[in-house]
Amino acid sequence: MKVQSKTDKNGELATMNAVQVKNCINRSTTAIIVIGACENHGDHMPFGADFIFPTEFLKRISAILKNVIILPYIPYGLSSHHNDYQMTISLQSGTVVRIIRDICQSLIKNGIQRILIINGHDGNIAPIEIASRYVKNRDPTVVIACLEAWWTLVGQSRHNLFDVWDGLGHGGEAETSAMLAVRPDLVQMSNAPKAVIPKLPAKVRIYWKFNELSNTGATGAPRKATVKKGNEIVETLEGILNSFLDEMEKNKWKYGISHNQ
Question: Which residue in 28, 166, 180, 225 could disulfide with 155, CB within 3.0 to 4.6 Å?
Fold first, then answer.
């Protein structure tokens, strides 16, 4: 009798062989794409935090996800607003758009019709939307969803969780707490800078360069970060993601006017 491995149902594409992929992929499979960045997050945080956290988060919850395949993470994004800091690795916006577009079209070519993008970096939000709308226009039957900004979503969902600024900030309270929960070995709290809350308009967006907001590479209040807060971030995101996937699965990934058809 064949013992069915975990990767026969779910898996990380990069570590799977052809037999496992064949057993994993079907018309109901959801492909998950993680896109991050490589940039300064202050003296206390790793440059790869924007892809490390969502990748580690997915590893933690992969056992409870149903019929998903997790693609290799994309470690670079649009980070030109961080270019004044040493070793920022930034792609041009058009490059990010093309990478996401090409990955999505490769998935569609392989029969995947359900795509979930988990984004870890604010600069990627616009390119993700442009790429997704291009792909959707070309292949109207595909469903593309995106968790655009987990750091904002958690603050909005858990107002009492954070001490400062709803946890916001680059390498701030929420992001540092999240990394403490999944990769504490990469966080040096002794180097965490003092709180920096930039003065910005509340209702009109300014397209800033990051050195206009901070001298440290970080904003927010990283010294307020704790492992406990990080674990609650993981639990909150797990609930949000599971609820989304369960609801979509229940409706066979139909939405809008197609929901009742």
Answer: 166
* 200 against 259, higher pLDDT: 200
| Dihedral angle of Cα 236, 241, 242, 246, to the nearest 10 degrees | 140
Q: Is the pLDDT of residue 7 over 70?
A: no
Taking the C-alpha atoms of residue 210 and residue 230, their distance in angstroms, rounded to an integer, is 25
Nearest to 122 by CA among 205, 61, 37: 37
Helix (H, G, I), strand (E, B) or coil at 95: helix
Rounded Cα gap, residues 25 and 97, in angstroms = 25
Distances in whole angstroms, Cα of residue 211 to Cα of each of 43, 198, 208: 15, 11, 8
Q: Residue 219 has which token pair?
A: 């904003």
The answer to whether the CB of 149 falls within 8 A of the CB of 118 is: no
What are the chain's domains? 6-254 (3.40.50.10310)
Please give the structure tokens belonging to residue 19.
Answer: 């037999």
Burial class of residue 193 (count of CB atoms within 10 Å of its CB; 0-12, 13-18, 19+): buried
pLDDT at 5 over 50: no
Q: What gap in Å lies between CA 249 and CA 170, rounded to an integer?
A: 34
CA dihedral 109, 114, 118, 124 (to 10 degrees): 50
Which residues lie across from 69 on neighbouring strands? Answer: 11, 31
pLDDT confidence of residue 108: 98
DSSP H helices, 198-257, are: 227-250
pTM above threshold 0.70: yes
